[in-house]
Amino acid sequence: MLYEIVMMIIGFILLIKGADFVVKGASNIAKKFHLSEMLIGIVMVGIGTSLPEIIVTVKSSMSGNSDIIIGNSIGSCICNLLLVIGVASVCNPLKIDNKILQIHLPISVFSILLLAIFCNFGTGHYGISKLEAYILLIFAIVYIIYTVYEGKEEIQENNNEKMKQMNFTWILIYVILGIIGLKFGADFVVDSAVAIAEFFGVSESIISITVVSLGTSLPEIVTCMIATLKKESDLAIGNVIGSNIFNICLLPAIGAIIAPIRYDLSFNRSLIFLLIITLYLLVFDLFRNQRKISKNHGVIFILLFCLYVSCLF
User: Fold this and answer.
1) Helical segments of 153-167, H only
2) Which of 75, 53, 56 shows the shortest CA–CA distance to 65?
3) Strand-pair category, 94-95 with 292-293
4) The pTM is what?
5) How far apart are CA 173 and CA 25, in angstroms?
6) Which CATH number fits domain 2-154+163-312: 1.20.1510.10, 1.20.1420.30, 3.30.40.10, 3.40.50.150?
7) Helix 168-199 vs helix 218-229: angle between axes, to the nearest 10 degrees?
8) Rounded Cα distance, 284 and 299, in Å
9) Which tens digits make up the pLDDT trace of 169-215?
10) What is d(CA 179, CA 280) in angstroms, rounded to the nearest whole number?
């Protein structure tokens, strides 16, 4: 048990430094190539911080643990929306970009509905077949291509501002080291947390949707906190929405391509809850004109996440 606790602490350190390196590298790439930080947040940071989930998915699929794949996919998204955005907005109120409201959140809603249809009514008979897996994979790839195309047309508003930019080699080193730190940090935290949870006799499905999803979401939490403290709201929100779309589409797709995924209908409650909170963010602007997630909303999101986890046990 002492070994697991030590490895968990090491994992946290790697996550914090890894997230810091990724944010620095991503921000400098945005400035150097005049791309929007929202684009970098959605594509590079979104995929980078989703690496732990992807690694867990590959391991789980090869060992035949479908519950961990689906639970991690849905649980990580819920954790991102409630805990990550909640913690980030408590640090500093988050502004929601117009394009996130008009384009990326609707895509996120569609991806959730697509997964729900495949899992409940698809050809996999309460699971995901290889055909459906390839559809999800293509959807994710098209989304990435569209986001890159969209970002190239955007010129950063403070482009003329005098900024100290990194050499491209250093940017690459920062991003690579950051992603490596996030990957191994999340591995250490998740493996230690799962070992501790199993020691107390917690079931695999509960572990997947709570401990595993929380552990693999730690990169997003730390990345968003650092981005928010640096007044880079687009990077923070883009990271969350991008990670959610990748988690919903890529994780089940990768898992099902390796081996067909069986779907436990008990996950439907969590899937519906995920859809509701995503829709809430989508219609958020109808109730408030400032398009900001305040500190009070952040506290509510964190409390909702705690309530959600407590209801699972």
Assistant:
1) none
2) 56
3) antiparallel
4) 0.78
5) 8
6) 1.20.1420.30
7) 130
8) 16
9) 888 888 888 888 877 887 787 778 778 777 777 766 777 788 778 77
10) 31
